[in-house]
Amino acid sequence: QSSSVNSIVIFFSFKIMSVLFFHSMKYRPEDPRNPNNDRFILSKKQQFVDVATGSLGQGLGAACGMAYTGKYFDKASYRVFCLLGDGELSEGSVWEAMAFASYYQLDNLVAILDINRLGQSDPTPLQHHVEKYQRRCEAFGWHAIIVDGHSVEELCKVLSQPRHQPLAIIAKTIKGKGIPAAEDKMGWHGKPLPKDMAEGVIKELQSRIISCNKRLYPAPPNDDTSPVSLRNVRMPSAPSYKPGDKIATRKAYGMALAKLGRYNEHVVALDGDTKNSTFSELFKNEHPNRYVECYIAEQNMVSMAIGCAVRDRNVVFASTFATFFSRAYDQLRMAAISESNINLCGSHCGVSIGEDGPSQMGLEDLAMFRAIPTATVFYPSDGVSTEKAVELAANTKGLCFIRTSRPENNIIYNCNEDFHVGQAKVVYKTNDDHVTVVGAGVTLHEALAAADMLKKERINIRVIDPFTIKPLDHKTIIDNARATRGRIITVEDHYYEGGLGEAVCSAVVNETGFTVHRLAVSQVPRSGKPQELLRIFGIDRDAIAQAVRKVLSSSANAK
Ligand SMILES: Cc1ncc(C[n+]2csc(CCOP(=O)(O)OP(=O)(O)O)c2C)c(N)n1
Ligand SMILES: *[C@@H]1O[C@H](CO)[C@@H](O)[C@H](O)[C@H]1NC(C)=O
Ligand SMILES: *[C@@H]1O[C@H](CO)[C@@H](O)[C@H](O)[C@H]1NC(C)=O
């Protein structure tokens, strides 16, 4: 039963798929992931080959990543074919990808638009007006050809043409063709045919297969894609910061990425017109051929990253302001489903960016990335740990997010300090501490300043830098907090929901006698000076010192 249902679903794009797989594509059928093979992306639903689809509108962006890699990084002859539905052409992300492909002249990319007139609950807005699709594609810089999507001859012919531009094949089709009861009719989307109807259709299909005794073999690909090894992408030397140096972690990110790229030729960087804010421009300056400007199209940038990382061709780092990854959250969620290995750097986190105001502040990004099962979330607090985060991210599977800050802060670590994913650092301690404070990024520095202030009042606190928020080092936090009678204060430049404080709460949920007091941003902020905003939102040194005093006086009262 289930195999017959699959056959019928495939049947809807039967001719297009057959022509691609038995006429146009070059590949080794016994080795589907061979780097020389042409790529195929079934954007219009179903899990297939390199990237998971199903959330519509994302396939062409991933296809752009594969085509860009083929043309500019691998410099190989494989081609990329992407089959799209007409329903998903209402997604803006498709048109971000269309603009990208023509700007970068991805002449190794073919998009086949299956114009079957029907979506899920309604006909598509343009129905069968194929000439309107053609004009749109042409306006985006593509060569666009209309064909009868049920004509094998027409499909073969158009797919054989030489190309100098990305090619859009606008295939006019009838949804459910060959099944009289379902042909061109609403109400059949995603539904299996009833058993008797399915049997009839399968019989009809089989009769056609039997009548053809010619065997079809795909053409083998050219073996012109060099093997790549992405194992052990290392920095050849330790960071070279000096105690007393001040640097913003966003700048340390750019310096670290440029350094990593110096010794590893498959490291590539993407950015969305923010390179002089995220400092990915330091990578671009040194490695211009391995930098891809994705312009202000963050959804496409994330899909591009996924496409570039496919088949382990590149170690990809994509950067923008942390907050702008929120508009690509669906792409990030799908990256997890695709088991994609991509690295993202979000700069300008929190209110500490200052004057640029709330629209530019990343205040939800920890919540967003923590919720993704395959994600590792780095939140480095100085130049040394940022460089280590970049190196670790390059070697960590899944989706890695590095959260960077705008203000300049002191170097706090020794250059030979060892860092690991899931390993926190105790950055300040005495043998008589009363409260454990967990901070990261700018708030770690505020916590250190609070420790100095409180020392004058003879109150000692312990300060912990989690380094990774996910996975969080439960053991270090619990062991140290136990030494401060279970008293914990968390302080973060992020909204309360889903951030550092909630991560620490869930780490200690089973401990008895622990209390967690959280400091975070509770309202939509405004523009202001960084230090002013830290004070107004209660996450600066004074707020931390005050919280420590309060925790101590309330536990004294409780006795
Ligand atoms: C979604 C998003 N991505 C990136 C940015 C960062 N950013 C702010 S202004 C700007 C350039 C905008 O250029 P344009 O639209 O031409 O504006 P104009 O030159 O007229 O100021 C960028 C990339 C942003 N604010 N929003
Ligand atoms: C980025 O570069 C542009 C062009 O040189 C400049 O106008 C802009 O101020 C720079 N932005 C930042 C944040 O430095
Ligand atoms: C808390 O205890 C429950 C029940 O034993 C366990 O499943 C869970 O993993 C524990 N959580 C943590 C964070 O230790």
From TrEMBL:
Gene3D superfamilies: 3.40.50.920, 3.40.50.970. Belongs to the transketolase family. It catalyses: D-sedoheptulose 7-phosphate + D-glyceraldehyde 3-phosphate = aldehydo-D-ribose 5-phosphate + D-xylulose 5-phosphate. Pfam families: Transket_pyr, Transketolase_C, Transketolase_N. One of its GO terms (molecular function) is thiamine pyrophosphate binding. Signal peptide: none annotated. NCBIfam families: PRK05899.2-5. Keywords: Acetylation, Calcium, Isopeptide bond, Magnesium, Membrane, Metal-binding, Phosphoprotein, Thiamine pyrophosphate, Transferase, Transmembrane, Transmembrane helix, Ubl conjugation. It comes from Amphiprion ocellaris (Clown anemonefish). PANTHER family: TRANSKETOLASE. Residues 247-411 form the Transketolase-like pyrimidine-binding domain. It is an enzyme of class 2 (transferase). Its EC number is 2.2.1.1. InterPro entries: THDP-binding, Transketo_C/PFOR_II, Transketolase-like, Transketolase-like_Pyr-bd, Transketolase_BS, Transketolase_C, Transketolase_N. Catalyzes the transfer of a two-carbon ketol group from a ketose donor to an aldose acceptor, via a covalent intermediate with the cofactor thiamine pyrophosphate. Its cofactor is Ca(2+); Mn(2+); Co(2+); Mg(2+). Homodimer. Coiled coil: none annotated. GO terms for biological process: pentose-phosphate shunt, non-oxidative branch. One of its GO terms (cellular component) is extracellular exosome. The keyword Transport does not apply. This is transketolase. The chain crosses the membrane at residues 6-23.
